Amino acid sequence: MAVEAQAVHAVTLDGTDGRRSDMNAHPPIPLVDLSLQHRRIAEDVEVVLRDVMANAEFVLGSRVERFEREFATYCGARHAVGVGNGTDAVEIALRSVGVGRGDEVILPANTFVATAEAVVRCGATPVLVDCDEDFLIDPALVGERLTSRTRAVIPVHLYGQMARVEAVREAVGAEVAIVEDAAQAQGAERFGRRAGSLGDVAATSFYPGKNLGAYGDAGAVLTDSDAAAESIRAFRNHGGVRKHEHVQIGVNSRLDGIQAAVLSIKLSLLDAWNKERQSAAVRYQELLAENEQIALPAVTEGNEHVWHLYVVRVPNRDRAVSDLNTHGIGAGIHYPTPVHLLPAFSVLGCREGDFPVAERLSKEILSLPIFPGITEEQQDAVAAALRLELSGQ
User: Which end of the chain is more exposed for a tag (fewer CB within 10 A), N or C?
Assistant: First the structure.
């Protein structure tokens, strides 16, 4: 019977029975269309890049300082410090609140590996907790993992909406630092406050696919502390803010002028682009609402979601992703393996079953194409293909 079912499935996928032939009746639809985004700003980018070249401000410089001021103001923080990438941003943010060897840092099992990597790079130990049904860290579990060695907790803002930072703060008290991982939430709000402004310090990534993405790797650390900002500026630049004056051991993780110039242009458009994402998310909700096999994403109370990713839950997810990809639809999985089950983190001694919600969700989650400029026709094609795929299961 299993072999027969596989054979029928293969026939329906190539369209020979007529039932799925319409899945090929559209151009490829990417998960995110960065070329479309670039075309919208190409002329402005050419102008600022010529300026960067003419002034030879390739590393740090006035363009970086300008973007740092703009981004800090946008997020509602006193300072933004540009760094080389989002992973460095998390590590530097952790170090700025004193995380080091022997410390513990609490973070969700459902996150990208970089969050946990940054903890290890500080010499600290990741302490994982499960997520809630909204994919975000479960604040009720955070307090259970506190020990005398807990130095910080990282509430990861995931898929475009913010974690319940105020509940995490209540769970850990004032002595434990809160470090926001805001890489997927540029422009998101929680009870009117933007991502990056709720914790003691925050880190973000400007990887090209983010809501605010550079033309390469880039990141930033946000803080309200003047002293912390000064220390972070030194740490990113070999431990000093002036040439040949090294007041601490640092790293080489500096935002460059080209990325800062591009980011300033994009920042001016971020709210408009986030509204396009929000409109697309509403339309997906309408297109997919009638299918009982599809669990639609929910917006947590108090959040303004900016839909970095549109993540549904479906049965037989791996087959659904493969079939959609085969037919030109850029579906993805964010993320297929929780941190505790990654080989790199086997040293933590966790086992399958330790974080059941994250494990269950990792087998069901499916990211559908969403980006500024996605057309109704593209969304219609995505929804139709997903409905048709699930009807054959």
Answer: N
